[in-house]
């Protein structure tokens, strides 16, 4: 399905297609991709769980293995919690295309294009940074095997991965390396696809909110009559514009509700996994003087996880602010000069300011920058608790 404005979302479409989440791709193709991802992730989970039975399980083992186990499980959770909402994702995209197709002025078109371009640029930046991090991690992980160099005399050729593959690691070294590279490269795709989807939808909401605010400021304007040498203040109200504003404001509310329905459970699972991962990575950072290499790698992972966490929180904050700005712009207009019947319609929008639009994770965690700070504090608290234990 092609639309003129879809050029801004080509990368989003690619990421969703290669993870089997694009609502317009063929059912056979989507199922095949999901099966491939599921098989790889289940094999990885099996290898990680097996290591619990073949290794000496202690606190150090858990601190090193769980941060890798959590995102592997989260990958499958992200996939299948969104598969059940494929019809709703299709509705969201159809709604976006309808918003692009509606009649707009040149200034309003510019607003829409600015927000769509922001989506495209942020998605590209996120993709590039993520795979720079992944490539660096692969090089760090397998440098001794690739270059034949070890940092310590007693260090084995294959660094400890805390996975059990049940084959000779020396004999099938390159097979293990190839499988590990595939999994490490494949795993971030799901998080990239889902994050870019959330980014595209929320940026579209912000664009529509700014467009409606622009129209709200121009519902009323002053008419000057210089023939009588007096300034006659009057109000010219286009009932069609008022009806459009109210209808589109209602559509924005429905659009945000649908976004939350599709993302509320995945966001909550993300938060739980992120708190666990950051806490364990912080535990590794605290031992940086004992194992400098592990400490630096943990710091890098923390930065990546925080980058992943801040996107939904920042966009949730922006959606709340932009939706509230519509009410403020209507309130600051000359709505009191309108007819009583028209005032009642406009008051419906102003009344929404008492109930701001907030994206949440299962109504438990509002997506906002203050909540981002709360998650950091929670992760640090759990880290301190585990350190005492």
Automatic annotation (TrEMBL):
Keywords: Cell membrane, Membrane, Olfaction, Receptor, Sensory transduction, Transducer, Transmembrane, Transmembrane helix
GO terms assigned for molecular function: odorant binding; olfactory receptor activity
GO biological process: signal transduction
Membrane topology, record value: Multi-pass membrane protein
Origin: domain of life: Eukaryota
Keyword Lipid metabolism: no
Transmembrane feature ranges: 32-53, 121-143, 172-193, 267-289, 295-315
A single cellular component GO annotation: plasma membrane
UniProt signal peptide: none
InterPro entries reported in the protein's UniProt record: 7tm6_olfct_rcpt (IPR004117)
Subcellular location(s) of the protein: Cell membrane
Family: Belongs to the insect chemoreceptor superfamily. Heteromeric odorant receptor channel (TC 1.A.69) family.
PANTHER family cross-referenced by the UniProt entry: ODORANT RECEPTOR, ODORANT RECEPTOR 19A-RELATED
Protein name as annotated: Odorant receptor
Source organism (scientific name): Lasius platythorax
């Amino acid at each position: 399905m092609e639309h003129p404005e879809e050029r801004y979302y080509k990368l989003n479409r690619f990421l969703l297609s290669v993870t089997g989440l694009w609502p317009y791709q063929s059912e056979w193709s989507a199922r095949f991709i999901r099966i491939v991802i599921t098989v790889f992730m289940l094999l990885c989970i099996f290898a990680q769980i097996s290591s619990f039975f073949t290794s000496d399980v202690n606190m150090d083992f858990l601190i090193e293995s769980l941060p890798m186990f959590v995102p592997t499980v989260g990958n499958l959770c992200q996939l299948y919690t969104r598969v059940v909402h494929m019809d709703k994702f299709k509705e969201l995209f159809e709604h976006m295309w309808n918003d692009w197709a509606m009649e707009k002025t040149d200034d309003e078109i510019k607003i829409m294009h600015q927000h769509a371009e922001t989506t495209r640029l942020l998605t590209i930046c996120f993709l590039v940074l993520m795979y720079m991090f992944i490539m660096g991690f692969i090089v760090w992980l397998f440098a001794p095997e690739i270059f034949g160099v070890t940092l310590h005399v007693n260090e084995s050729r294959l660094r400890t991965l805390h996975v059990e593959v049940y084959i000779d690691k020396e004999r099938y070294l390159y097979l293990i390396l190839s499988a590990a590279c595939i999994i490490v490269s494949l795993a971030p795709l799901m998080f990239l696809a889902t994050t870019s989807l959330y980014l595209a939808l929320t940026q579209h909401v912000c664009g529509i909110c700014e467009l409606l605010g622009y129209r709200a400021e121009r519902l009323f304007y002053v008419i000057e009559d210089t023939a009588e040498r007096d300034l006659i203040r009057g109000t010219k109200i286009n009932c069609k514009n008022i009806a459009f504003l109210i209808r589109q404001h209602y559509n924005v509310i429905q659009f945000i509700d649908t976004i939350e329905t599709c993302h509320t459970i995945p966001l909550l699972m993300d938060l739980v996994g992120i708190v666990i991962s950051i806490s364990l990575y912080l535990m590794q950072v605290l031992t940086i003087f004992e194992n400098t290499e592990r400490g630096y790698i943990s710091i890098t992972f923390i930065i990546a996880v925080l980058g992943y966490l801040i996107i939904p929180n920042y966009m949730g904050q922006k959606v709340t602010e932009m939706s509230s700005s519509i009410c403020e712009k209507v309130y600051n207009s000359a709505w009191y000069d309108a007819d009583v019947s028209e005032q009642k319609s406009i008051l419906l929008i102003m009344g929404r300011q008492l109930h701001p639009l907030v994206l949440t994770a299962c109504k438990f965690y509002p997506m906002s920058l203050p909540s981002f700070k709360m998650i950091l504090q929670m992760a640090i608290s759990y880290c301190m608790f585990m350190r005492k234990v």
